[in-house]
Amino acid sequence: xxxxxxxxxxxxxxxxxxxxxxxxxxxxxxxxxxxxxxxxxxxxxxxxxxxxxxxxxxxxxxxxxxxxxxxxxxxxxxxxxxxxxxxxxxxxxxxxxxxxxxxxxxxxxxxxxxxxxxxxxxxxxxxxxxxxxxxxxxxxxxxxxxxxxxxxxxxxxxxxxxxxxxxxxxxxxxxxxxxxxxxxxxxxxxxxxxxxxxxxxxxxxxxxxxxxxxxxxxxxxxxxxxxxxxxxxxxxxxxx
Length: 240
Prior knowledge:
It is a single chain. This protein is α/β, with parallel strands linked by helices. The protein folds into 2 domains: 4-69, CATH 2.40.240.20; 75-238, 3-Layer(aba) Sandwich (Alpha/beta knot). The chain has 6 helices and 12 strands. The chain has helices at 21-30, 86-99, 124-138, 152-164, 200-208, 223-238; strands spanning 4-6, 11-13, 16-20, 38-43, 48-56, 60-69, 75-82, 101-107, 145-149, 168-172, 188-192, 212-214. The strands form 2 sheets. It has a 6-stranded mixed β-sheet with strand order 1-4-5-6-3-2. A 6-stranded parallel β-sheet has the order 9-8-7-11-10-12, sandwiched between helices. Strand 5 (48-56) and strand 6 form a beta hairpin. Helix 4 (152-164) packs parallel to helix 5 (200-208). The relative contact order is 0.15. One of its GO terms (biological process) is rRNA base methylation. It comes from Parahalioglobus pacificus. This is Ribosomal RNA small subunit methyltransferase E. Pfam families: Methyltrans_RNA (PF04452).
């Protein structure tokens, strides 16, 4: 945790917050703070700054906070991702928040197991738990938006063309395609399929929506590695 993120529910007075639970445990057991120490803080959805530990009990800590600095700029990237298995999704959510991805669309695909859509992880509070962990790591306060689409064809035909309009849009897929090497600083759309890749029909629909088919190289990557490689290339280009 490189940034203590607080919400309106933590405010206990003017420029004062009370932290308990997981974050309090981290303050005490990992950071080993004491009264008078300063740490980096940020308001969820708002500004960043510093907090001074003013009071500690067995259950909570109170801090005086001052937030005046904007969070780091978001990566102008929309990730469209075939829903992976829950364990992998947790890691991908954290990584996307760390990189500063703006929007995430989780979609269905022929090779996505139906059981994946039943995971409690897709509840908003659960999604935010892992996104927040990424924000804490990257010292950011702005959550990516997450949208769920359980039908592939309506998404690809009705929404994907709108997402791609005016943007650099690619669908990453194994095959004889140009290797992905982003060169534009314009907003981008990155479509990544499930383990085993999209079926040809799905790739064709993505191309019809405005996506260029690209390869991530000759190696066979796990989905989480493909996401990190593609988004990391964008982040390096934009120096973010």
